């Protein structure tokens, strides 16, 4: 998915899949402030900066934790990465 500057993703869980397998997210472009919380929507959250090329995997007991992208940080993508300003997130999930 492509996320332009100024966009965000609200707190949510990834629970659509029929199997309990890890979620793998690969980031390209601008840095993003990724919030990772617990199993309750308003539990404490940890801010993690995801940079271009980062891979974030959550599975096991953390598979259904609430998470969000709070902010995309402008002008942080690598100079040699040719793309529009913003962020691309490739998310891999196993459905069956």
Q: What do the pLDDT scores average to?
A: 92
> Major sheet: order of its strands?
1-8-3-6
Low-confidence stretches: none
What oligomeric arrangement do these chains adopt?
Answer: single chain
The share of residues in extended strands comes to: 35-45%
In whole angstroms, the N-to-C terminal distance is 22 Å
Number of helices: 0
Order of helices and strands: EEEEEEEE
Give the total of beta strands. 8
Which term fits the overall shape? Answer: globular
Radius of gyration: 14 Å
Helical fraction:
under 10%
Largest sheet: 4 strands, antiparallel
Structural class: mainly beta
Textual characterization of the structure:
The chain is an all-beta fold. 0% of the residues lie in helices and 43% in strands. The chain has no helices and eight strands. The radius of gyration is 14 Å and the shape is globular. The model has no long low-confidence stretch (mean pLDDT 92).
């Amino acid at each position: 998915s492509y996320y332009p500057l100024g966009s965000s993703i609200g707190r949510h869980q990834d629970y659509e899949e029929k199997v309990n397998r890890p979620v793998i997210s690969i980031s390209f472009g601008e840095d993003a402030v990724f919030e990772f919380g617990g199993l309750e929507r308003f539990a404490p959250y940890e801010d993690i900066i995801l940079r271009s090329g980062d891979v974030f995997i959550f599975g096991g007991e953390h598979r259904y934790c609430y998470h969000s992208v709070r902010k995309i940080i402008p002008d942080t993508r690598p100079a040699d990465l040719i793309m529009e300003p913003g962020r691309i997130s490739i998310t891999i999930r196993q459905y069956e």
